[in-house]
Design goal:
It catalyses: a (3S)-3-hydroxyacyl-CoA = a (2E)-enoyl-CoA + H2O; a 4-saturated-(3S)-3-hydroxyacyl-CoA = a (3E)-enoyl-CoA + H2O. Belongs to the enoyl-CoA hydratase/isomerase family. With about 260 residues, this protein is α/β, with parallel strands linked by helices. Helix content is about 50%, strand content about 20%. It has eleven helices and 13 strands. The strands form three sheets. A seven-stranded mixed beta sheet has the order 1-2-3-5-8-10-13, with helices on both faces. The model has no long low-confidence stretch (mean pLDDT about 90).
Length: about 260
């Protein structure tokens, strides 16, 4: 097993790479954990056959509790900006990765922990999941993409309610408002693996194109978004994914997607 100090991952199995966070007591997003996540993504890129990355926690009751507050207490405004840049770099890289990603949230995902989960393509939660961006309690605001990604997931009003009150959103509500995509009463990692199995079959380039076009819907007027959608379809024909999928369907065979 490849290993960093606080982040571990195994071999790619059936296109799935499982990454686990293990920085007691609560997976605070300090520099070691951020570096470990970069290392895990380096390994995924080197493997070349990753279609889905699952990020979960080894710490009972916690996905990730947020920024490393002890670290924050020792730095000034300039250093805080640099620290936020490191957190944002991990999240932005994860969101733009050439694979899909699932956050398996079994317990608390607060602050930077929720920002990490929101950078994933999808989120699975157990009944004990709790989500929040409580930075205003520290006289701060979310600084690793939270103010941007949360409204896209749950809408402006709900995002403001969550951030301005600094409250923790329970799993059932998170699922109802779209902050979590799946909820389970069983083992969260097993539920994430089941979702990964559903994601493995279709064309990954087509799935990534879906993500890009949906994200574009928040940034572009409808007409421009529709043109972007057409462009994405054209690329799927150009690289052969669409032709392979159609030919396989007509020939009643399993498609051989890239």
């Amino acid at each position: 097993m490849a290993e960093q100090q606080v982040v571990t991952w195994g071999a790619v199995t059936g296109g799935v790479l499982e990454v686990r966070l293990n920085r007691p007591p609560a997976n605070a997003l300090g520099i070691p954990l951020l570096d470990g996540l970069h290392a895990a993504m380096d390994a995924a890129e080197a493997a070349g056959d990753v279609k889905v990355m699952i990020i979960s926690s080894e710490i009972p009751g916690f996905f990730a509790a947020g920024a490393d507050i002890k670290h924050l207490a020792t730095i000034d405004a300039l250093s805080f900006t640099a620290y936020g840049d490191k957190m944002r770099a991990v999240n932005d890289r994860l969101a733009a990765a050439p694979w899909l990603s699932i956050a398996a949230v079994d317990g608390i995902a607060l602050g930077g922990g929720l920002e990490l989960a929101m950078a994933c393509t999808l989120r699975v939660t157990g009944a004990a999941g709790k989500f929040g961006l409580p930075e205003v309690k520290l006289g701060l605001i979310p600084g690793a993409g939270g103010t941007q990604r949360l409204p896209q997931l749950v809408g402006r009003s709900r995002a403001l309610d969550i951030m301005l009150t600094a409250r923790q959103v329970p799993a059932a509500e998170a699922y109802r408002i779209g902050l979590a995509d799946r909820i389970t009463d069983g083992d969260v990692l097993d539920a994430a693996r089941e979702l990964a199995a559903e994601l493995i079959g279709p064309s990954l380039p087509a799935q990534r194109a879906v993500v890009r076009t949906v994200d574009a819907a928040f940034d572009l007027p409808l007409a421009e978004g529709a043109r972007y959608e057409v462009d994405q379809i054209g690329e799927l024909f150009t690289d052969g994914e669409a032709a392979e999928g159609i030919e396989a369907f007509v020939g009643k065979r399993r498609p051989n997607f890239r």
